[in-house]
């Protein structure tokens, strides 16, 4: 029997996802027509003998309840549970804190996934290698450009044995072009290893405090709290690699982080393209009396699209959206209850809930071509060329052009804006 844990974080962790996370928690934001976390659950549901999926985070309990109820209906063979951390315990702290509930039923293998990733999720292949190699854990890695390797947790891998020889979190100098994907599988014994790692961390903090006391430093700090935070990357994975207890599995499919709000658009495209390759039934196609559909497009059944509109590629249109004559939408996400009037254009953008786009209005961002383009949408307080984002309930008047900008909720745009953040 196998289990899975998805680390969903909490409200304070999604600041780069604003203004979209002001309306909805980042894990529940829709990409590819489904919430980000749904894609992980769907992939986990296809893992052999996986019986339970546990979400761990510090959101309020009620936040995920409706979503998990839907998951229970869609995947009835899997049990779902949300466990709330009493405080921020570190990237591995919640996992370790709830170990008794995780090991209940005596699972052989335990998956751990971060929620802020988009991936092809070859989890059965990952599990097969983990069981074949018999190590304490297996980390899924992907090849990244050497120039951007410092942005990730980097793994040095023995090509013959597939052992992870070193793990370094965001190295200052080049270590490896193999990056952690935020997907792991562990044997149940991982909790003993984590207990030892936590004891070592507490000892190090106590020694540091003793030194500070000896030098007469009396500044108040939260070191006791910090000492009890268990960091997966620095405290666990690095030591596992040093003790030859971590193997590495290469992900040859797609992978991308979903850190900033802008990163949702390329993630949306990747999932839609995958669905198109899988011939998924929920994708829209051109019909005699419908709009022109190009490439991978998701349109919610309740959306109303004028037959003269041109939609796609890589577009998600959600519930109760109304699209008028001559509208062009490309490489974008249009959220619930949006109205787009005649001949407007939405390109490389996210249009938030309840927005109104006037006739001949234009909301346009810049196409993202590299994974490194999406980590930040501002530089020194200035909006950089990236996805254009409208927060909830933004009104764009007729013939107004919003380009490469971020607009916070409840704004009325009566004039053109370029490369601005409208507060």
Descriptive key words:
single chain; 423 residues; alpha/beta; seven-stranded mixed sheet; 9 helices; 35 strands; globular
Largest beta sheet: strand ordering? 5-4-1-6-11-8-12
Strand percentage lies at 25-35%
Please tell me how large the radius of gyration is. Answer: 23 Å
Structural category is alpha/beta
Number of helices: 9
Helix coverage percent of residues? 10-25%
What is the global morphology?
globular
Low-confidence stretches: 220-224
According to DSSP, the number of beta strands is 35
Descriptive report:
The structure is a single chain. With 423 residues, the protein is α/β, with parallel strands linked by helices. The chain is globular. It has nine helices and 35 strands. A hairpin with a 2-residue loop joins β27 and β28 (382-383). α6 (190-214) crosses α8. The strands form eight sheets. The chain has a seven-stranded mixed beta sheet. It has a seven-stranded parallel beta sheet with strand order 14-17-20-23-26-31-34, with no helix packed on it. A seven-stranded parallel beta sheet has the order 15-18-21-24-29-32-35, covered by helices on one side. Residues 220-224 have low confidence and may be disordered.
